Amino acid sequence: MKVDDFNAFCAALPHTSHVVQWGGAHVWKVAGKVFAIGGWNDGDELAVTFKVSQMAFEILREEPGLRPAPYLASRGMTWIQRTSGESMSDGSLGDHIRESHRIVAAGLPKKVRLALGL
């Protein structure tokens, strides 16, 4: 997935905002909470980091082209980083980004969720 495709996909999700920070990473948030990060790859493909369920984390962490997200996973958070499309297609990545958005939105305070219609 190229950075423009990543940004367009994330922008189409409800109530998102975008900022470039942390050394040039494209950071996407829902109501101010991060749900996806694109950047930091030495290869040709964009590295994309996203939040997953505990079960998905246990499965995905062992797949080629995926790894526990540096910094986030080392602090006990269930975030995965896709570094290549070796075992996850762009379509599947989109599904995981959409789910990350849902997980993060579900963790927002009820008042915020209701105000945003989430």
Describe the structure.
This protein has 118 residues and is of the alpha+beta class. It has one domain (3-116): Aspartate Aminotransferase, domain 1. The chain is 34% helix and 25% strand. The chain has helices at 3-11, 54-60, 90-106, 110-116, and strands at residues 16-21, 25-30, 33-38, 48-51, 66-68, 79-82. Strand 2 and strand 3 form a beta hairpin. The chain is globular, with a radius of gyration of 14 Å. The two termini are 27 Å apart. The mean pLDDT is 89.
Count of discrete alpha- or pi-helical segments spanning 4 or more residues: 4
Q: Which class in CATH terms?
A: Alpha Beta
In the sheet with the most strands, the strands line up as 1-2-3-4-6-5
Poorly predicted spans = none
CATH-defined fold name: Aspartate Aminotransferase, domain 1
Strand content: 15-25%
Relative helix content: 25-40%
Overall geometric form: globular
Q: What is the radius of gyration? A: 14 Å
SSE string, helix = H, strand = E? HEEEEHEEHH
Mean pLDDT, as a whole number?
Answer: 89
DSSP strand count: 6
Going by CATH, the architecture would be Alpha-Beta Complex
Separation of the first and last Cα atoms: 27 Å
Largest sheet: 6 strands, antiparallel
Q: Structural class per helix/strand content?
A: alpha+beta
Number of spatially distinct domains? 1
